[in-house]
């Protein structure tokens, strides 16, 4: 299973095409729109999110709410597009483009964004040609794709949730997640302004975001994704590009502004003995093989163990700042300090929804690689058989 996306941040629309989705999967715009709405939220978002009302149109591959086995096409319109037709120079409405708009080029790259190197790489002296596609606006359709993957996983008894564990140095109590099911976590997170489980930490995070915004600055944080109900043996140790942990790390790092990934207790492993890290193995009639602890986050040898998968990613602070950083105008080569119109001051909560989506996709794709099937009933039966087999192994 694979997908591609297309679309510019201020263009008319964003599109994704999914190929390889099994037939007979329930796919509805309601499921997808719920996730799109969550991605637009979270304390710290900028004014663009008041303009957009992200909803999906399913334009191919689904009839009467069920996938056909053919490519699925998802489209999300950019409501802001109507303010940008001239500047973007794409004019499907057939209206005249103001020549003044064509002259309005961006020549001042932002430190920490893709502007300067993207311009050099593709030969764009108008840096808008870079920022339009490097913008995290693209994560809208990745969340739509992830919502389809989540529906597939849910029919297989696999559930997934993300929550925010850190913002601007304020850390949530991580043990809160270990005593709750994915469904319980989701309920709490959906009602929280920064999608955090720990209400005390959440209030401080909101305050930290407000302070950063007031100071014209931005802050980053950490998100955690948990996948429950995985059958053992998804992924493989036999080749580098079949390792599930490697695929999850790639997916997490592919999110705009994400700079590091941890699995299980992650970097903390550097401080501990082996006997304090590895999870002891037990067996019982009801569950089959289990681990007494889950410090390795449900992954051994590039394969799922059957324990919950736990993966975290760190997001750097947003690069567009109201408090200007020094940069150089590529036309005059003169230094300048930028002043900026609008941006998010913290998008960690929104990014947690993106993280959930991209991990869901990667897990679903790996499940389909292990239990290849053209239609849902065959896939479900294959997984049930495998679960019974691994239990008694
Ligand atoms: C949900 C989300 C929203 C974002 N919003 C902004 C924003 O408003 N302004 C900005 O400069 N960067 C924003 N970013 C981060 C940039 O897209 C990112 O830093 C840029 O693409 C450069 O990529 P890199 O940071 O991975 O090197 C956002 C990222 C995410 C995930
Ligand atoms: C549009 C979204 O996020 C955008 C991501 C983004 C960036 O540089 O990544 C810059 C901002 O775009 P604009 O300049 O149009 O306000 C954000 O609003 C979104 O998440 O839907």
UniProtKB/TrEMBL annotation:
<comment type="function">
    <text>This reaction introduces a second double bond into the aromatic ring system.</text>
</comment>
<dbReference type="GO" id="GO:0010181">
    <property type="term" value="F:FMN binding"/>
</dbReference>
<keyword id="KW-0057">Aromatic amino acid biosynthesis</keyword>
<dbReference type="GO" id="GO:0004107">
    <property type="term" value="F:chorismate synthase activity"/>
</dbReference>
<feature type="binding site">
    <location>
        <begin position="133"/>
        <end position="135"/>
    </location>
    <ligand>
        <name>FMN</name>
    </ligand>
</feature>
<feature type="binding site">
    <location>
        <begin position="256"/>
        <end position="257"/>
    </location>
    <ligand>
        <name>FMN</name>
    </ligand>
</feature>
<keyword id="KW-0456">Lyase</keyword>
<dbReference type="Pfam" id="PF01264">
    <property type="entry name" value="Chorismate_synt"/>
</dbReference>
<feature type="binding site">
    <location>
        <position position="45"/>
    </location>
    <ligand>
        <name>NADP(+)</name>
    </ligand>
</feature>
<keyword id="KW-0274">FAD</keyword>
<dbReference type="GO" id="GO:0009073">
    <property type="term" value="P:aromatic amino acid family biosynthetic process"/>
</dbReference>
<comment type="pathway">
    <text>Metabolic intermediate biosynthesis; chorismate biosynthesis; chorismate from D-erythrose 4-phosphate and phosphoenolpyruvate: step 7/7.</text>
</comment>
<keyword id="KW-0028">Amino-acid biosynthesis</keyword>
<feature type="binding site">
    <location>
        <position position="301"/>
    </location>
    <ligand>
        <name>FMN</name>
    </ligand>
</feature>
<keyword id="KW-0288">FMN</keyword>
<feature type="binding site">
    <location>
        <begin position="316"/>
        <end position="320"/>
    </location>
    <ligand>
        <name>FMN</name>
    </ligand>
</feature>
<dbReference type="GO" id="GO:0008652">
    <property type="term" value="P:amino acid biosynthetic process"/>
</dbReference>
<dbReference type="InterPro" id="IPR020541">
    <property type="entry name" value="Chorismate_synthase_CS"/>
</dbReference>
<dbReference type="GO" id="GO:0005829">
    <property type="term" value="C:cytosol"/>
</dbReference>
<comment type="similarity">
    <text>Belongs to the chorismate synthase family.</text>
</comment>
<dbReference type="InterPro" id="IPR035904">
    <property type="entry name" value="Chorismate_synth_AroC_sf"/>
</dbReference>
<comment type="subunit">
    <text>Homotetramer.</text>
</comment>
<keyword id="KW-0285">Flavoprotein</keyword>
<dbReference type="GO" id="GO:0009423">
    <property type="term" value="P:chorismate biosynthetic process"/>
</dbReference>
<dbReference type="InterPro" id="IPR000453">
    <property type="entry name" value="Chorismate_synth"/>
</dbReference>
<feature type="binding site">
    <location>
        <position position="39"/>
    </location>
    <ligand>
        <name>NADP(+)</name>
    </ligand>
</feature>
<keyword id="KW-0521">NADP</keyword>
<feature type="binding site">
    <location>
        <position position="342"/>
    </location>
    <ligand>
        <name>FMN</name>
    </ligand>
</feature>
<protein>
    <recommendedName>
        <fullName>Chorismate synthase</fullName>
        <ecNumber>4.2.3.5</ecNumber>
    </recommendedName>
</protein>
